[in-house]
Fold each of these.
Amino acid sequence: MTAPASPRFRRLLVTGGAGFIGSCFVRDTLARRDGTTIVVLDKMTYAGNRANLAPVVADPEQAAHLTFVVGDIADAKAVAPLVAGVDAVVNFAAESHVDRSILDPEAFLRTDVMGVHVLLEACRLEQERARKGDRAAAPRFLQVSTDEVYGSVETGASREGDRLEPRSPYSAAKAGGELLVNSYFVTYGMDALVTRGSNTYGPYHHPEKLIPLFITNAIDDQPLPLYGDGLQRRDWLYVADHAGAIGHVLQNGRSGEVYNVPAENERTNRAVVTDLLALLDKPWSLVRQVEDRAGHDRRYAMDGSKLAALGWTNGMKFEDGLAATVDWYLAHEDWWRAIKSGDWNAYYERQYAARLASSKEAGR
Ligand code: NAD
Ligand code: DAU
């Protein structure tokens, strides 16, 4: 057996590593056993979950390469010593749910803009230390951003140089965060880059989002609240492909660049729900048409040729990924039932009670 190739950046600070995509990145990176060590910094908001890292903790060799710190990326005192000890920072930490950003935008600004600023300042300090010879090289900073910064794309596919037109408090905050990253590259010459991923799905996805919400509600024969006409289009990317692309860009991407991470699996929400119901053998009558999301983006689509030229190819077909995801939720009821309890009930009531009360048949 040949030893795994040694990565260029081996000591990583992974912020938001207890969330959906961040935890996949941590699990998949440490499972390669290539000598990478990871410090996770996570505030453990409602979206952070230690159980997402259970497979790492259960493996003594992998566990020895992971340090877990509970803390806020917007807390400069917590961040500085962690950045001092790593070769690269991968920032997954964010408030990530559009609906919650419509209910309470402030937390989005604090984490998705100010948090990025604090991380960048810590990297700038380390860059200074590197210039003085106090460390070998400045840390690399990778910001995990989203296709939502392009806004609603009625036709065609967004390219990295296209204008940003975010339309929700979430996507506006994410755009602010990544524009700060670019400003630190231009102004301070920082080694920094950005990925813009499309709608991600797979195991460990918080049940507030479309696919896991509809799977878990359908398992319980509960209504599936479809916003508006359900003809909005999203490009569904399997989580291991998204995490893998981020790792590939971290190791191979050019500083100062932005890389789209599309899936090329564009589907209407109705089509996704139809597939989910077929996999679960549940009836369409569970689907309820509810009041639309305010400012709902109709479509996202990105051109992936820049990432392809960097040598990355996704591995998962949508049909296989969706089936694997449904199987995972069927096999991990303890995981999602624990999340769909406590504070969840107040959120669900606020987001859906009035919508469901005034809902109508979704029609096929
Ligand atoms: P998530 O909500 O599942 O996880 C976010 C994690 O960040 C949680 O563990 C949470 O506790 C942590 N966190 C939140 N605020 C923090 C703070 N101030 N300090 C430290 N930790 C904090 O999100 P996700 O779906 O895994 O998304 C990860 C990243 O990828 C986000 O930046 C998101 O904008 C981006 N993204 C997500 C998708 C998607 O479809 N899920 C697609 C493209 C990009
Ligand atoms: O595109 C990337 C983005 O994808 C990420 O940046 C975000 O962090 C992530 O949450 C996701 O945003 P969306 O708003 O597209 O995902 P969500 O799962 O919330 O919704 C997907 C689609 O399904 C969207 O058109 C809204 C619709 N929807 C969603 C929910 C939760 C419904 O019809 N009913 C629902 O109850």
Amino acid sequence: MTNIESTRYTNVCRVAVFIPLRQSFDYLIPDHFHRYSIQPGIRVLVPFGRQNKIGVITHSKIHSSVNRKRLKCIKTVIDGKPLFNHSDLHLIEWAARYYHHPIGDVMSSALPGLLRKNRAAELPAETILCLTPQGEAISLDSLKRAPRQQELIKYLQATPARLSSTKALNKSGIQWRGCLSPLIKKGLVIQEKQIPDCESSSTVSSLPLSLTTAQQQAVDTLLENTHQFGVFLLDGVTGSGKTEVYMQLIQKVLNQQKQVLVLLPEIALTPQLEERFRARFPVSIGLYHSGLTEKDRCTHWLQFQQGITSILLGTRSATFIPMSQPGLIIMDEEHDPSFKQQEGFRFSARNVAIRRAQLLNIPILLGTATPAIETLHNAQTKRYQHLKLPARAGNSVLPKLKLLDIRNLTMHSGLSEALIQHIDKTLSQNEQVMLFINRRGYAPAYMCHQCGWVARCPRCDANAVVHIDQQRLWCHHCGSNSGLPKKCPACHGIKLEALGVGTERVEKFLQQRFANARTARFDRDSIPSKSTLDTLLSAVQNDEIDILIGTQMLAKGHHFPNVTLVCILDTDQGLFSTDFRAAERLAQMVIQVAGRAGRAEKFGQVILQTRQPDHPLLLTLINHGYSRFAVNTIQERVQAHLPPLSYQALFRTKSTNQASGLHLLQQMRTELEKITDEILVLGPVPAPMEKLAGQYRYQLLLQSSQRKALHHCLNRIIPYISTLKISKLVRWSVDIDPIDLY
Ligand code: ADP
Ligand code: ZN
Ligand code: ZN
């Protein structure tokens, strides 16, 4: 009976509603809707509970298993044309399944903020004033008595297309508003709306370079495969000319009238790449990152979706942007952890981009000097093609890495005397110095000399960090802060001491020691915005800065021709972490940082301060480079059954009540033991920082050597969680392929 019921009615569609539930919902299509107005990829307004919600149709004609009487009707159709095509929707559904994340949330994160609301998906149009044939023919003399009308007609008659946007008229100072309606009445002028063309550079100033043999090989291999899916790892040392390879490939794809999506880890890297692309390609280039206004994001999204822009440069949020003529996807600095979203919809942009290229049947190029261990493993097992650029292009040579043993040395704000000598020498040659320390602020601890009291964050399991300029204590985890006490709150003693070193302290010391040198600090405190960063970066380019001090922020991609000395002050920090990926991160950091040195003709050197001069990781890296390090690391992971040789999912809980999260995970564990014995279940354990921002955090790790088995198990355990009463008191999340076990 139900079968007959459901087959008789095909006017039902399935909608991914923008709500945090792990399912889609079926809705009736009212008879008065035109059948063609209901297509997959179109946004609709639907009743949900007592509210109306927005969603996207994923399937237009389905046989619903829901009793027809319980189905509600679609309220409004928002779009005239689908925003997502079949392949886009396929990707979104796949991502929701793979990451076990609510499909409505995946769908809405694939849209720009403005289109998550009930707003038309229209490109902003501008008003155009246009001469009619009479307007073109009229003699200016006949308008003598209306000087303003005369002026407007004269202006329009002088333009090549006999029209002008009102924006341009405003700029020219012509008073057009008052005289428009009489001119329209006389039939001399008409007013129209028009979508403005994208700006593109009309002059090309950078010509393709003649490629090195290795570059040419990389380009040729890819060109043989432009018409089908394939993953290519462009493994090129820093400064080997990966960007030139990208550009020559992009040119070929543009010649085929197709589009290129270029993904970058950080907004900060977009300006220089954008500049290089604009100098090379006379086409319109779109941008998509969080530094744009909502309106601009929406415009760039629509322009790429409609094929108006040919190249799109974006951060991980651009991974899902629809392409009308897909040709190629490029992911630069593919190893960068910023490609993984760490909250909400926790997806890996690399993983999604690869799946996307597969669905679109186009190639994807992953570029980096320090491939992720996962990626290298895929290259070794021939799932990806491995393209290598082993040497720097042009005249620069790779810098030399050196360990500086600081055991038993007196340190001055984190710097050894030997290092200070190197800095001195570099400055005296009018070259620039770059110092890295992975901690901002003045000092990571504030302690009473008399009683041992240490300033802690009241809401986290963490020390408060001293910031001297502000005279405040800050928690770097939850942002709570307070004034720097002058007296010990415990014993009222006045001997309070800042312990350890951060960027602020290093800068203060260097300003004292090298009073004539100009310093600049690059961290989140000193660089509040992208424009400050841009200003500072160009000051470095113009040699207005001598010493750069920074956190990771400085490590990525930048090109500083006059930096010849790079120092890592706190190398050892990465050697003793509990996270199995810490070594990989350290190695990548060292090589990337080193890549900033000696990028022009001048020879560069890199100094790593360490108290572990015999540490095998450091020795391998220094003497044999990243690839040897990576080969060793893969072997270690094989032996320890760690990713990429196994697959993980991490459940995290947060709750104000300390016990609730733990209980939830314990109940899950019990259930998991009933469901399967194929999965390794580790925990529950407290998160490395158990208390954060007043919430208690626990985690449960699932691991399997079979991805399928893991996902099968997740499909059963996730629905089980919502049946638990305690789940109402706990916020929980699941992270597939976690890259940080915090
Ligand atoms: P990567 O992206 O690999 O770090 P870049 O593309 O920034 O390297 O190139 C580093 C420098 O080498 C740039 O100044 C670039 O113009 C130059 N370069 C790249 N390819 C060549 C080439 N084939 N011949 C000469 N110079 C090149
Ligand atoms: Zn005290
Ligand atoms: Zn805190």
